[in-house]
Design goal:
51% of the residues lie in helices and 17% in strands. It is of the alpha+beta class. It is elongated. 35% of the residues are buried.
Length: 281
């Protein structure tokens, strides 16, 4: 292979939460993804349309706060398709709560073959996702484990496939699926390269779940602060009206909430609103 500069042993992929999340919760998820592709910088794969290092560089620049999960995983699949020679399509299967779906894909044929497996309840992509293993179908014409799937693949011009389980760190299982036009096309080098793409897909999914968690937490905090502010306003009104202490005012609100079977915040909000309307008259 050409070139002398060695690829670093690992690359750190960092995705930051979207703006607006409180500083305390602005976590950064950083995973070390091994570069399993044994190559030098600038090396190419015969028949490939894209240098793997170019693809990995683009993946490292992706940000979930600029694109949704489906778009990012679709780009992962598209880059995998462009990097591996003889590939007709690629996709990312996710399995959550026993429900399988294609979260991103490159090529309608790929989506069709994925959905056939979901309808049947079995197939190489589901086997890889559920088992955490690499599942290869080197020759669809000789495939006996999933004969119906193999027949549909052959009819569509797909002669081999590779499904690589995503490194699972969450409750979501998944696999990167590669479909090829020739039998025995996906050798060990292709497997190692696909594993690297699968690692990137896993980072994207984990970060998406992190964003969802932090965004939900931020919203909960915002609502809690708003609730506290309204209650403090209502307490102040009661203190002024009844010449009582803040603790006694809070007890009044609590009794009102219990007697009317309404949330404390709603009772406080009504008091604040009605007082403001009275003053405006």
């Amino acid at each position: 292979m050409n070139g002398t500069a060695r690829v670093p042993a690992a690359v750190t992929v960092v995705q930051r939460p979207p703006a607006g999340v409180p500083t305390l919760y602005r976590h950064v998820l950083s995973w070390q993804i091994p570069w399993r592709w044994p190559m030098c910088a600038g090396a190419t794969i015969t028949g490939a349309t894209l240098d793997p290092l170019v693809a990995f560089a683009e993946l490292g620049r992706m940000k979930l706060d600029e694109s949704d999960l489906q778009a990012v995983l679709g780009r992962v699949a598209e880059l995998a398709r462009q990097t591996l020679p003889g590939i007709v399509g690629a996709s990312v299967t996710l399995v959550e709560s026993e429900r399988a779906f294609t979260a991103g894909f490159a090529g309608q044929l790929t989506l069709d073959l994925d959905e056939t497996q979901y309808q049947d309840g079995f197939g190489p992509c589901l086997q890889a996702a559920r088992s955490g293993r690499i599942i290869t179908v080197p020759d669809m014409a000789a495939e006996t484990r999933w004969p119906a799937f193999a027949r549909q693949a052959l009819a569509a011009g797909v002669h081999s496939s590779l499904s690589v389980a995503l490194p699972a760190r969450e409750a979501v299982l998944g696999a990167l699926n590669i479909y090829a036009t020739q039998p025995a096309l996906l050798d060990q080098d292709a497997v190692e390269l696909a594993r690297t793409f699968a690692g990137y897909a896993a980072v994207v999914i984990a970060n998406a779940r992190l964003y969802q968690t932090t965004a939900t937490l931020a919203e909960d905090m915002r609502r809690a602060m708003e609730t506290r502010a309204v209650i403090e306003q209502a307490k102040g009104i009661l203190v002024a009206q009844h010449h009582c202490t803040p603790e006694q005012a809070f007890e009044m609100l609590t009794r009102l909430s219990q007697s009317t079977h309404r949330k404390l915040r709603d009772c406080a909000a009504d008091l604040v609103t009605s007082t403001a309307e009275d003053r405006a008259r």
